[in-house]
Specification:
The protein is mostly helical. The protein has a domain of about 160 residues. The chain is built from 11 helices and no strands. The N terminus is likely disordered.
Length: about 260
């Protein structure tokens, strides 16, 4: 943890400075800034780095998933509704089924149910709700982990800072009035390092989570709107002119006796 930071690193810096004077430049092996960063932060920094990698991985996976299934692309809905109003139910269903979009999956379930004359409207709505919930679950999978990282990362950073400050004040008590300001300042900045790291992890994680969750919420609204348009097709038929065709869906026509 951060429990030995302020005692270890001032002495370490002094030893390095003394060794640099006595040693020749050819034998100097300075540590990389990244190694010094992890060494100064202790285990808390390592944990935060692991959380940062996990958050980045989750964000990339969700972005690829959303792009693959077409989240946010709803241009086909208007065309499907026009086909349904023209009583081309099978053509509309054939166009919806190959699409990976969650909105298309929900619309396909609604069209399939409405085109079946033996299917009760309540049962169709239940099936549409089930399909919509399955699509939402798939889109929201992993977002809870992003939310958790955005919540605990600053708390872990604060924990590291508190532990470092405790150790720094313990050193002040040990040396009494012989405290050196440079030693105290070194312990404090090393302690504050974990807070900065925690915030650096939490802020991007929170941004990604908010944007992805908003995308899911919008997609849920689009799914509900698309399903409602399928269920309200009879309202358009009722408002159509008298000479306009008012046939049933193709599947229902096939089921009627000749």
């Amino acid at each position: 943890m951060m429990i030995k930071l302020s005692r270890r690193f001032p002495a370490k810096r002094a030893a390095i400075a003394a060794g640099a004077i006595a040693a020749s430049p050819a034998h100097a092996t300075p540590a990389s800034p990244l190694a010094e960063f992890f060494d100064a932060g202790g285990p808390i920094i390592i944990i935060l780095a692991a959380l940062a990698v996990i958050a980045l991985g989750v964000a990339i996976v969700k972005l690829v998933q959303f792009a693959r299934i077409g989240v946010g692309r709803h241009g086909f809905v208007a065309g499907v509704v026009q086909q349904l109003r023209a009583d081309h139910w099978k053509k509309a269903l054939d166009g919806l089924e190959p699409r990976p979009s969650p909105v298309a999956k929900v619309m396909a379930a609604a069209v399939r149910g409405k085109a079946d004359p033996l299917m009760d409207d309540i049962v169709v709505r239940e099936e549409v709700t089930r399909v919509a919930q399955a699509q939402l679950d798939a889109m929201e999978r992993g977002l809870a982990l992003l939310s958790l990282i955005a919540t605990i990362a600053p708390l872990l950073g604060l924990l590291g800072t508190v532990l470092g400050m405790i150790e720094a004040f313990q050193q002040m008590e040990t040396v009494g009035d012989r405290i050196e300001p440079a030693v105290l300042a070194g312990g404090i900045w090393e302690a504050l390092l974990t807070t900065a790291a925690g915030l650096s992890v939490a802020i991007p994680a929170a941004v990604f989570f908010t944007w992805l969750q908003r995308s899911v919420d919008v997609e849920a609204q689009r799914m509900e709107d698309a399903a409602t348009q399928v269920f309200t097709i009879p309202l358009y038929d009722a408002a159509a002119p008298v000479d306009a065709p008012s046939e049933r869906p193709e599947a229902q026509l096939a089921a009627q006796p000749a």
